[in-house]
Write a structure and sequence with these properties.
The chain is an alpha/beta fold and 245 residues long. It has a single domain, classed as Bira Bifunctional Protein, Domain 2 (BirA Bifunctional Protein, domain 2, 2-Layer Sandwich). The chain is 38% helix and 28% strand. It is built from nine helices and eleven strands. An eight-stranded mixed β-sheet has the order 7-8-9-10-6-2-1-11, sandwiched between helices. The longest helix has 18 residues, at 102-119.
Length: 245
């Protein structure tokens, strides 16, 4: 069966996290097929890993000063900074399609991003466990979760972000890039302004190649939209969930 591609455009931070969960639930219930979705957040945001404590991984005072929103996502991993200069992709599929071991599933899924960047003329490669780099500099990171027979991987693709702010709001973490020189973007690598649609199209082609599939464009179902709004209002948009740890 062809995989669904959903372009969600620009959305609020809480709604982006809610949509990811709504699609996961719909996929687990067999209401939709395998889905590749894209969105950009409509304001600068820090996305916390599900198990993280905000005060231990981000500069809360600086986030408040700069008006940076904070959300907690349903996957684990480390906090990341996102802004309107990044595309966030989410791949939601039956977990039988990728190996259970993350050391094997991350390379397979990240190959979609690698293919996309190479298609744009950027010499990207996967860096274990869950990054994509260009000449050693990080251009994409990702995280996974598995629930109810479904694997969800979402990740960032840096198109033209504010890397100085990114480096400032995330606190020092062992083994993670902490210098601006360790990060890059599509616009830096190509030396030109890059339209988001160009990157999205490259990602669709990249994932089609990685999995040997064809895709079709669609929107969220009415049920997914209603579920996402409810999750945004009652869970992801609430401080009690965001700062629960």
């Amino acid at each position: 069966m062809d995989w669904r591609v959903v372009d969600l455009g620009r959305m609020s931070p809480a709604l982006t996290a809610a949509v990811d969960e709504a699609v996961l639930i719909s996929r687990s219930e067999g209401l939709v097929g395998n889905t590749l979705s894209f969105y950009t957040r409509d304001r600068p945001t820090v996305s916390l890993g599900y198990f993280e404590k905000a005060s231990e991984c981000i500069d809360l005072d600086l986030c408040q000063e700069l008006g940076i929103m904070i959300v907690r996502r349903l996957s684990g991993g480390s906090a990341i900074y996102t802004d309107s200069g990044q595309i966030i992709y989410t791949l939601t599929l039956g977990d039988g399609l990728v190996p259970e071991n993350p050391k094997e599933s991350y390379p397979l899924i990240c190959a979609g991003v690698v293919n996309a960047l190479r298609g744009l003329g950027i010499a990207a490669e996967h860096k274990p466990l869950n990054d994509v780099v260009v000449k050693g500099r990080k251009i994409s990171g990702s995280a996974q979760t598995r629930k109810a027979g479904v694997v969800l991987q979402h990740g960032t693709v840096i198109v033209d972000s504010d890397l100085d702010v990114m480096m400032s709001v995330i606190l020092q973490r062992p083994g993670k890039p902490r210098r601006r020189e360790e990060m890059t973007s599509i616009s830096i690598e190509l030396g030109r302004t890059v339209e988001m649609d160009e990157v999205k199209n490259a990602l669709v082609t990249g994932f089609e190649k990685a999995f040997g599939i064809t895709t079709y464009r669609s929107g969220l179902t009415t049920g997914e939209q209603e579920m996402a709004r409810k999750l945004s209002d009652e869970k992801y948009g609430k401080g009690v969930f965001t700062f629960q740890r």
